[in-house]
Amino acid sequence: MQDHQSGHQRLTLSDVQRPEYLANPYPLYHRLREHDPIYWDEEMHAWVLTRYTDVVAVLRDPRFSSAWGPVETAWMPEDLRPQLEPALRAVSRQMLFLDPPDHSRLRGLVARAFTPRMVESLRPRVQRLVDELLDAVQDQGEMEFVADFAYPLPAIVIAEMLGVPPEDRSQFIVWTQDFGRLLDGGNLSFEELLTTLSGIADFLAYFRRQIAQRRTAPRDDLLQALILAEEQGDRLNEEELLGNCVLLLAAGHGTTTHLLGNGLYALLQHPEQLQLLRENPSLAPTAVMELLRYDSPVQLTSRRPTADVDWAGRRFKAGEEVLTVLGAANRDPEQFPDPDRLDLRRTDNRHVAFGHGPHFCLGAPLARLEAEVAFTTLLRRLPQLCLATEQIEHLPSLVFRGIKALPVTFASVLPA
Ligand code: HEM
Q: Which residue range(s) make up the domain with 32?
């Protein structure tokens, strides 16, 4: 697009997919925020917001909806509809895509089964898993951090929480990939959408069997806690229960993988910060929050106003998509002094990597726990941890920011 005032090529959000901005989108976000902090993007057919104050204000404003609206099934091939329609309906009942009062009811029920105390009780198990993943690479002196560590860790944690037996884990991991693609929005081809929904249909069938088993032989896991909520009357029906199991997987896996990958990459590029954390493991909670701000796994989310809204001199029409760019808000100099500096001691770090307002990430305590244990253990057990290549590729996504592969080398793996 041509900028008529300056005569320069005008940058838009879609430019994030150009190789130079995929590697580092933050200069692009700065340009957008400085020149056009609220603009209508013809290509994305959406408003794009890059200022911290706007992002936070939209996310907590009840005039903006997260709802999907009625589920459309006309596009589905006739023969696949009986299988795909229930999958799509269950997805549409995820709390992420609901507004109050349905949202508050569902979130309250899932939150009861997903308390910070319950998450904290997982710490010893997360520590054991982290140690086992490092033990597995101890004789190699190298690993591909994403495949060997960042990918399996959150998948195993959430699978165990939901009570998936170890023998079903690999299938479960395939499903989590399907769901992650669904949340990536516009990037899906028609065939991929069909594959994804049919994966979700298989997942629902699997969980229906798990639920039936637990009704006769109760167990002590998150799925059982959700079943109890369902059995207390009509407050959580089976479709909602299943839809939200899908969400826990989809929202909790790829995002945490990206936090681990982006976080380690940032540390390796800032050796003095890495050393600081290595020498002061008690910094881990603050450090993880800074890594989340610095290179956020979820770069944007969206809302739609239910009626026309006048906003800082612009008019968002009812139903128009409004993209809140979390990754840009997290680098806004008005909110974060020296925003492009990685500062593991940064305080007053009110980043929006977990969103803001009523849909604030329900899994934030779990993601933070996993990252704290992972980074402190990695730095303690792997001396001379280094990048094995300068050629790091990012995923081609506007929504998620993650690294495809992160090969690293190390001197040895010290005992747990
Ligand atoms: C919501 C980010 C990990 C479960 C969200 C939202 C963001 C986010 C930005 C809000 C989306 C919106 O407002 O449209 C992240 C990041 C994670 C992470 C960056 C890891 C670093 C997890 C984990 C779980 C989880 C581990 C659970 C196992 C959820 C759920 C919601 C959510 C259930 C929906 C909450 C609602 O709609 O009320 N997450 N998430 N997330 N996240 Fe996370």
A: 13-409
